[in-house]
Design brief:
With 209 residues, the chain is α+β, with helices and mostly antiparallel strands. The chain folds into 2 domains: 80 residues, Glutaredoxin; 105 residues, Up-down Bundle (Glutathione S-transferase Yfyf (Class Pi), Chain A, domain 2), CATH 1.20.1050. It is built from 8 helices and 4 strands. A 4-stranded mixed beta sheet has the order 2-1-3-4, with helices on one face. Helix 1 packs across helix 8 and helix 5 crosses helix 7. Pfam families: GST_C (PF00043), GST_N_2 (PF13409). InterPro entries: Glutathione-S-Trfase_C-like, Glutathione-S-Trfase_C_sf, Glutathione_S-Trfase, Glutathione_S-Trfase_N, GST_C, Thioredoxin-like_sf.
Amino acid sequence: MIDLYTWITPNGLKISIALEELGLDYHAHTIDITRGDQFSPEFRRINPGSKIPAIHDRDTGVTLSESGAILLYLAEKTGRLMPPTGPARLEVIEWLMWQMGGFGPTLGHAHYFLTYNAGQSPMAEAVFAKETRRLYETLDARLTGREHIVDEYSIADIAIWPWVSRYERHKIDLNDFPQVMRWYLALAARPQVRRGYEVPHFTGAIPTP
């Protein structure tokens, strides 16, 4: 059994979707970051950094935070969603790092400047709108002629997809990125993705263009 400490953010959704895809038993604990639950003494014993998601694996005793690290742990624990060796494994890690280091942080800033605080900082809006579009172009190019980010469905897809599901907050029209659109809708149709998207609670249907 895995205890998942999470909230309805792209980083949280990565882990619930992965757990659903892997068919692992888990219990979701709601950490409402809008109320400051992440700063509670109870949660800080799980993650002193006060950020979701985090897990505790009752079977192995492992407690882990940082969504990319958790995805790697789950893939290695089960031997699934990432090739065990070879170039394809490195590519999965490469695209996971692309999401962790660029796509996710940039899109997080896009949420802040383009949606939640529009009109407050024109320079920041211009910078993040331009970089957001560049990253979507990179993803679209990668998916040209490919069903998935790497050869087979992997934690790279799972890491990137929840961020794309916020495309409206990025002021992105997915019709401008047909390969991303195709890939996004294909994953959105997966029952495991749909179940994971509703953790820790249902907030609405998966957005579709």
